[in-house]
Amino acid sequence: MTFPPTAVGTGAYAYALAGGLVRHGVEIQVLAPQAAGAAAFDQQAGFSVERFNASAFVPWRYVQARGQLAKAVRRFKPDCVWATNGMSTRVVGLLDCWGDVPLITSMRGSDVTARLASQSVSNRLENMPQRRAYEHSAAIASVSRFVRGVATAQGINGEKIFVHPPAFDAVHTKKYHFNREKFYAQYPQLKNRQVVLSVARLVKQKRVDKALGASGRMIKEFPDLVHVVVGAGPELGELERIAYELGWGERVLFTGAMAPMSSEIFDFYSAADIFVLPSVREGMGNVFVEAGAFALPCLAVADGGVPEVVADGETGLLARVDDVEDMSAKLRQLLKNRERTQKMGEKARERVTSQFSSQAMAERAVEVLERVATGG
User: Fold this and answer.
1) Domains and CATH numbers, the chain
2) Model pTM score
3) d(CA 104, CA 133)
4) Lowest CB count within 10 Å: 41, 112, 275, 316, which one?
5) pLDDT band at residue 262 using 50, 70 and 90 as cut-offs
6) Backbone phi, then psi, for 8, in 5-degree steps?
């Protein structure tokens, strides 16, 4: 229910999964909602993508998606269906064909950590098909050990759950080249500066306000410091106000949303020195994997599944949740000791290559698919 060019983390996961499976000889058919720029994006995907129009009205979106999925299952007669995020897992829970077609569902973060235990009427209604999908699943892909633990505490069968974190697909950088001259001509305010980067949907969960607060305390001590925020969302106006009150002036750059895995967003990863995102309740966080792929040390918080990707003191630093003082102290460490910071970035890239590569992701997926498809 999310797929590029929509800039959502679970969409990036679905895209990396599909691409990895194709390279292992698996025939893929992706079913996803229509999105702006989808036609051009799908042409270079390397596999078949079928799009459908999805209503902004969530209940009707479920009805539309259920109908489209039922048709797709009848038409393609797949050996397996893989629901790649929480909403698609709830969609498959509305169908009754899973005795004939093996099903893999997903746990990617807030669909479990915030929704599954919720007592609100709307969430409880949505949780019914989600739990039903898990019951009918041959396997369940969890983004992290943390999310698996939360799910089992909510009564989900832990024996079905396997950990399947996001991956960075190096295929997307093979043709990418950071054109410094062009980039700094477009963003002259970033040239010869120390760049702190945050990439996120601008919602409260991501705590970008805390990131701005921490870096804002560094303005006088590090006069060449700038903070770039890539993303869009309902918190933008408030974040702009916070930046103004902190005295950042033009030293905070809000770029707006950018397509995932695009040269535009790669440019900002390439130009940055440190990645900062103190988000909470993350299943894990694709952006930390992406930042590590570009050798960026990360400043995050010790919450959710983030410590499973950001190794404290090795590939970055973890602060206490919502503690701006602690964050600013740790950011100061990263800014002052450039040699140590650079080594952290190098280790981050090594960690992504060994543990969060698309190759490792695809191999695990193929292993599970073969077991599921053969009833093993």
Assistant:
1) 9-167+357-373 (3.40.50.2000), 171-355 (3.40.50.2000)
2) 0.88
3) 9
4) 41
5) confident
6) -130, 140
